[in-house]
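#lab-general

N.A. 3:47 PM
ok so I finally got the sequence cleaned up, no stray characters, all 174 residues accounted for. can someone with queue access submit it? mine expired

B.Y. 3:52 PM
send it over

N.A. 3:53 PM
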Amino acid sequence: MAPAPIRILGLDPGLQHTGWGLVEHDGFRLRFLADGVVSTSPSEELARRLLVLHQGLAEVIAAWTPDEAAVEHTYVARNPESALKLGQARGVVLLAPALAGLPVREYGAMEVKRAVVGTGHAAKEQVQAMVRQLLPGVTFKRADAADALAIAICHAHHRATRNAYSAAMLRAAR
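B.Y. 4:20 PM
back already:
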């Protein structure tokens, strides 16, 4: 019996552009559902930008009713002020699905690349090409949306492995 399909929302945090991508996974196959970007204006004050991010993500979650969410870790070492702002945006990106009651997992960039391409040092173009292979017919709104779809794919692969491991452990315990 095939498991019930689940909807996975992948999120690529950014203060100016937060990418989102939604896939459906039935344990065997991935199916593209939607993607997009929540964008803010650099001319707005930080609090307003964070509110726009939250409202945009809340709308996506309400419209598409995902079952789980996955968020990419962000690494910025250049400018401390930019890193702090990105961290605040990432906090909103983690909070929005949590407030909706979704389980949220986090994955590092290398982990996402390894799950999608097979190597943690893949170029963005390689990741996008593999996302197109895994989700036929997909067209990205922006690169941020492609990254978000890669995060959702990574979560689907890791989720399948976790579920198989749990099932094996249950069988072994009997």
